[in-house]
Amino acid sequence: MTTQAGPSRDILRFTTHRHLRQRILLSILSGKSIRVDGIRSDDVQVGLRDYEINLLRLAEKVTNGSTIEISVTGTSFLFHPGLLPGGNYTHTCHIGRSIGYYLELLIPLAPFCKKPFEINLYGVTGEEGRDMSVDMIRTVTLPHLHLFGVTDGLELQIKKRGSAPLGGGQAVFKCPVVRTLKTIQFLEKGKIKKIRGVAYSTRVSPQFANRMVESARSILNRYIPDIYLITDVYKGEDSGKSPGYGLTLVSQSTTSSIHSSETLSIPNPDKPQTPEEIALNATRLLLEEIKEGGCIDSKHQWLISLLMALGKEDVSKVKMGPLTSHTIQFYRDMLSFFGTKYKLVEDKKTGEVDVSCIGIGYSNVNKSMA
Fold first, then answer.
1. Which residues does residue 263 pair with via DSSP β-bridges, in sequence order?
2. Which CATH number applies to 192-292: 1.10.1200.10, 3.30.360.20, 3.90.1030.10, 3.30.360.10?
3. Would you state the CATH architecture of domain 9-82?
4. pLDDT per residue over 220-258, tens digit each?
5. Which one-letter DSSP state was computed for residue 107?
6. Which helix (H) or strand (E) segment is 160 a member of?
7. CATH for 297-358, among 2.80.10, 3.40.50, 3.90.25, 3.30.1370?
8. Low-confidence residues of the chain: pLDDT under 70
9. Using CA atoms, how far apart are residues 214 and 218, in angstroms rounded to an integer?
10. Is 313 exposed, middle or buried (0-12, 13-18, 19+ CB in 10 A)?
């Protein structure tokens, strides 16, 4: 059964390529068709990029009955969403963006499939400055889903690492289905009790990972004793096609609030970065993230806000650090798709924001009936 778009008033219209992922995501969840125009119409190279077309193809692959119409120039497209059957999939991601770019679309959809969801993704496992790496998603994003009752069978396995620009990595994402999401009250951020981290390297000396661990410890040891940083060195076939290295750090508080940071090497032969520079940068970013406060990592504000809105018809409250511009735009889009309004109470001293909303009672029962 496919949902046919009614008159043109039922199609939500947007412009520009920004926030494309979240609009495709909300379109599938709400069942509302979208039309996006003016995609890079002023650029030298107009229209959708290859990785964005790849993302649309992925959305088409994991749904049943979706249709996509892209204009000849690629500056506009029409998307009619289908249903989420679940099951097993394989997808080769475009190397223009890392696997994390694609997982950010899949993770909020997977719990609402008809059957448990599993997908093999091939491509770049991490890229500096654009998307979350697979390590960040495994250690930070998935524990955030646990808060809402998505637990048993939720995992992300990193089979092969693939650094930018050529990739060659492989990750397997598995997710169970849930009937409804739990509501949450998460207002106590607690004190930081432990820091964990992964230093990894591909196609470079294994010593790079050890050097990153030592440099990170030189700063972190001043704060708390419970620090455990592991090295993850990949060799041969499992190390992808490009040399690279990086460090992902995660702090956990007494109330299980999680903050994270990561820095990855940039492929630049003229000005190579030392492992020490990478580690010190990641460490400073983690301390800044903790200083911003809140119970939720800044990169996950939008995801938590979405899951709060999809929960049972009850009030969910979460304390967040200062809201990012991405989160604010996400709230505007949530109003367009679901009519959801968020109540924001800002603490003038700390800049922290108490975010609350009433869940819409989004249920998975219609998927299993369809």
1. 247
2. 3.30.360.20
3. 2-Layer Sandwich (3.30)
4. 999 999 999 999 998 888 899 999 999 999 999 999 999
5. H
6. strand 155-160
7. 3.30.1370
8. 1-9, 365-370
9. 6
10. exposed
